[in-house]
Amino acid sequence: MVKRGGKNTQNLIKNDSGISTENSSVGVSLFFIYICRPKPPVMKKTALLLILCLLVLSLQSQKHPPKEKLAEPPAPYGPVPTPSQVAWQRMEMNLFCHFGPNTFTGLEWGEGTEAEDIFNPTALDCDQWVSVAKNAGFQGIILTAKHHDGFCLWPNPHSKHTVRQSVWRKGKGDVLRELSEACSRGGVKFGIYISPWDRNAPTYGTNAYNKVFLKTLRHAHTHYGPIFEQWFDGANGEGPNGKKQVYDWKKFNGQTKKLQPNAVIFSDVGPGCRWVGNEEGKCGRTCWSRLDVEGREPGKNAPSQDTLNAGNYNGACWIPAETDVSIRPGWFWRDSEHPKSVQELLKIYYNSVGRNSLLLLNVPPDSRGLIPAEDSLRLMEFRAALDTIFAHDLAKNIRNICVSNFRRVYEPDHTGNCYSWRNTVFIEPCCGFSVIDDDYDTYWATDDSVTTAWLEIQFSQPKTFNRVMLQEYIPLGQRVEKFHVEVEDENGQWRTIAEETTIGYKRIVLTETVTTKKVRIVIDKSRACIVLNRVGLFMDNILEEVPDQH
């Protein structure tokens, strides 16, 4: 045990044999105390033998330490995500594909009166969509299977406004089928957007429509394999009869959960994930994955956009934010529009994934049924930029890390010789420190009573960086509400370079470019004991300026 920077600082030093110097030094100390002090000749042999025995016993206890009772892991705090929500959040980036009659008319919201034959892609290739997504680092694709115009991209038997009624592939085409199979082949997850608003359905605005919509959902959910996300738009306008619909959200969500139990359901109020409150690609600087939804529903009765952007501090439900934004000005493809720059996409990434949200980037296929070359190229440039920035973590494999407090868990291996601290900051050198390893399920945790603490990284040589990445272990809830980052300057003084609020699944802090040998992450306020499973330091030479932090 080494004291550093205060009486509570804890670190563990091992000698070359793997024996802790903290305890093995006891016997050695006793031995040297003995031989350096005057002793009566009569006692000399007996005492020497006794000291040697103590030394042997001390060393032996290090090789075969007694099994200690494992410390309890931190208890979950507040609402926590389901395994499906954790898996969803870890995807980080997915593609949105707006595709349908609007692709051919240039409208954003179709009227529902468009002739079915207007939908006629000449070279549809969903494998190309999947290839682009995968090569750009996107984990899933969500398709607008039915937008507000009511046109279905699959032969939905409960509608007469579908691909079956079009000339495309002589009425035998099925975009949903082709995309689901392409996703399966390419190892990309498959999701569906189905709008409840239907500007074509004759029954829209009556009680009968909810039954029709449930049948539509059932058909899509039972014929195309597993879906990772069901996207419900909250838009609710008039139907062809001039009436608005009262949606039965309870039945919509209930049937979806029954038929696709692992699907994360998106809407203004979840229950799986929520709208971020804008279409600018910007999550709140403070973003809680908690939300209060009692008495709320998608659409006009949703929480305010500010609330959706930041979440609720004491929200009763775990409903994380999803940031949806288009790579082009519009959601559907238009020949006159062009994709955002790499710098713009990086800002969106930092303001979404880097603020505890998932990024859903819309990349609309063109009238051929292909992702345009310029969009594909921009996505590859975006991927290359991310790889350049995040490929080299300066904190990776650093051996000199100390913390102000940690939750000690002893876990001898089968030989009785190798200790590890599973689910704490300190793991044996053969395993690496848990905040800089690649194991998502190891983490640094403080004692239950400790809600303010720091973690310090020390380099042997000065390092230069301008991005700090932190992650909380969200299966145990979201806890941190305030933190700051410090660096030691050339005079040995600590200087604050960033002050932020929430962390959640992932927080990427954009700082000025600094060069230092010491970095300290200070958790100023946590709602329960601190549980961090990742700390990273990176240098971004592509977007060097610090974007708007509001």
Walk me through what this model shows.
With about 550 residues, the chain is an alpha/beta fold. The chain has 3 domains: about 20-65, no CATH class; about 85-390, Glycosidases (TIM Barrel); about 400-540, Jelly Rolls (Sandwich), CATH 2.60.120.260. Helix content is about 25%, strand content about 20%. The chain has 11 helices and 19 strands. The protein has helices spanning about 20-35, 40-65, 85-90, 100-105, 125-135, 175-185, 205-220, 250-260, 305-310, 340-350, 375-390; strands at about 95, 140-145, 190-195, 230, 265, 275, 290, 315-320, 320-325, 355-360, 400-405, 410, 420, 445, 455-470, 480-490, 495-500, 505-525, 530-540. The strands form 4 sheets. Strands 1-2-3-4-5-6-9-10 form an 8-stranded parallel barrel, surrounded by 5 helices. Strands 11, 14, 15, 16, 17, 18 and 19 form a 7-stranded antiparallel sheet that branches. Strands 7-8 form a two-stranded antiparallel ribbon. Strand 2 (about 140-145), helix 6 (about 175-185) and strand 3 (about 190-195) form a beta-alpha-beta unit.
